[in-house]
Amino acid sequence: xxxxxxxxxxxxxxxxxxxQEGIVADNPEQAVEAAKKLxxxxxxxxxxxxxxxxxxxxxxxxxxxxxxxxDEVREKTKAIIGMQLVTPQTGPAGKKVNKVLIAQDVYxxxxxxxxxxxxxxxxxxxxGRNIIMYSTEGGMDIEEVAEKxxxxxxxxxxxxxxxxxxxxxxxxxxxLGLSGxxxxxxxxxxxxxxxxxxxxxxxxxxxxxxxxxxxDKILAVDAKVNLDENALYRHPDYAELRDxxxxxxxxxxxxxxxLNYVKLDGNVGCMVNGAGLAMxxxxxxxxxxxxxxxxxxxxxxxxAETVKAGFNIILKDPNVKAILINIFGGIxxxxxxxxxxxxxxxxxxxxxxPIIVRxxxxxxxxxxxxxxxxxxxxxxxxxxxEAADLxxxxxx
Length: 396
What we know:
The chain folds into three domains: 1-19 and 110-244, D-amino Acid Aminotransferase, Chain A, domain 1 (2-Layer Sandwich); 21-105, Dna Ligase, domain 1; 248-395, Rossmann fold (3-Layer(aba) Sandwich), CATH 3.40.50. The protein has 13 helices and 19 strands. The protein has helices at residues 5-14, 28-42, 70-80, 142-148, 166-175, 180-199, 236-239, 249-256, 275-287, 304-314, 334-348, 364-372, 384-395; strands spanning 2-3, 22-25, 47-51, 64-67, 84-85, 95-96, 100-104, 115-124, 129-135, 153-158, 202-212, 218-220, 224-227, 260-263, 268-272, 294-297, 322-329, 355-361, 378-381. The strands form five sheets. Strands 1, 8, 9, 10, 11, 12 and 13 form a seven-stranded antiparallel β-sheet that branches. Strands 2-7-3-4 form a four-stranded antiparallel β-sheet, with helices on one face.
């Protein structure tokens, strides 16, 4: 589950990570009041107006602006809230900005120069280790750094059974070229960041940039956080941070019906039970000359209600030209699924695209008979090849 920058920073701060302070605002007047409070609390004459969406690269899309006075705070907030912000991570459609973070200016002058670093903590599933990735080249162009100069991205493996060791935090600070007060502060920063990642059951904490201020303080200027949805039962307070406005409405609707749904860009909708079977079904669609329009797993207890919900969700996509239902009857009997398809079809009525139903497993023959005798515009199949051939036929 993705959360906003201001929410991620609040979590970091609760674990002792120094952050760029800020106040979230929903409109220009709230932004002005936030700027006044930051000036009072942190002596921040200038502030940064930062769009809050679930995507990185906001600065490149015009979603991060420096405001040097109150009038500019109002003006820039007004321009950002409501905009359709397009970044390299949003796709061409972009995301609508509903709120901004008014953040303190941390690039203040001092005895030495500021320096931006990159740091993230994530899980390396292949090796069963947590990884701290870091680089001396932080900032907006970190993707280009990773592509063109990958040797500048360094990694530190952490055994989750042991946790981050002190020497590892010091090694990271040393490799970043720090010394003195900045070195000590970075070791504390790394330790607190890892603790936050581990204790929140996160799958990713990305800080870009991590800033060394001109007075040698280390702080998080940004926070891109992904919480593991499977662990949210342990963190009900974090579950409340979910922003449904940032998610695809169809995926949100599917979640309410306990369906696992991901929208894709193809022309054949698919409904299956089981993630592995879903991947195989998408392969079948590709082999047959189509493109999968979605990933939709109805689970192991598919019935008329779940099938109906699946139909409604798939049919919201105007690009869908056919629907392939591929169910293995293990826990659930195929004839019950077939009856569910028939009932859902009759209840929805006038489904405008052909439907291919492939049922295999318990009572598969009875299920095929039900489909064939239903009189509906539904094609039945037993073998995968039959289903693929039918997909080719209805698309041609």
